[in-house]
Automatic annotation (TrEMBL):
InterPro entries named in the record: NTF2-like_dom_sf, SnoaL-like, TAT_signal
Start and end residues of each SnoaL-like domain: 52-151
Organism: Saccharothrix lopnurensis
Protein name from the UniProt record: Nuclear transport factor 2 family protein
Pfam families: SnoaL_2 (PF12680)
UniProt xrefs under PANTHER family: BLR2505 PROTEIN (PTHR41252:SF1)
Origin superkingdom: Bacteria
């Protein structure tokens, strides 16, 4: 039995969103569905392009570059039971959250992006570098309106590991300074 890949399409290509055309050609070839003529990939969905551009800006570490991707009334929900968990409302809260992630040297590598109406579903590898210790798969649901992210909901592949990491890295202040006294 051979372990060669008769289609020439790698798993990484599929996960990185080569497009359904290439996946369909590969599946058709595997099933003996005739010759696999090359067909051009469909044009990239504008919301997927927006999220790809967002990840490029995120990788730069420049918070001002990120600002242009967010609607003024953005809501960004971080799951879990840790100091960074909860829903951030508005651009300033979201950027403050990203500043904290920057302290831990967080990085993200998109694996797959899929549009669905106003939503883009994202699967990515997210990991910390300062200190190392968290390296998991995340899923995000981005809702887009007028070429801006208006909502993002994170889903951790291993919430327990995320909670442990964030508690280790982001400690609460001692009482009485821990609580907001508005």
């Amino acid at each position: 039995m051979t372990t060669e890949n008769p289609t020439g399409v790698s798993r990484a290509d599929v996960l990185r969103g080569v497009g359904m055309t290439a996946v369909g050609v590969a599946a058709g070839s595997l099933l003996g569905a005739g010759s696999a003529a090359a067909t051009p990939a469909p044009p990239e969905h504008p919301n997927v392009k927006l999220i790809k551009d967002y990840y490029e800006a995120y990788a730069s570490g420049d918070l001002d570059r990120l600002r242009r991707f967010f609607a003024n009334d953005i809501r960004w929900t971080i799951p879990g039971h840790h100091p960074l968990a909860g829903t951030k409302v508005g651009v300033e809260e979201v950027l403050a959250f990203f500043a904290e992630l920057g302290r831990a040297g967080f990085r993200a590598e998109p694996l797959a992006l899929a549009p669905d109406g106003d939503w883009v579903i994202d699967l990515h590898r997210g990991w910390s570098t300062r200190p190392e210790g968290l390296d998991i798969t995340w899923a995000l649901a981005f809702r887009i309106r007028a070429r801006r992210i208006v909502e993002a909901v994170n889903f951790a592949g291993d919430q327990h590991a995320a909670d442990q990491y964030f508690w280790r890295v982001y400690r609460l202040a001692r009482i009485p300074n821990r609580l907001d006294r508005r």
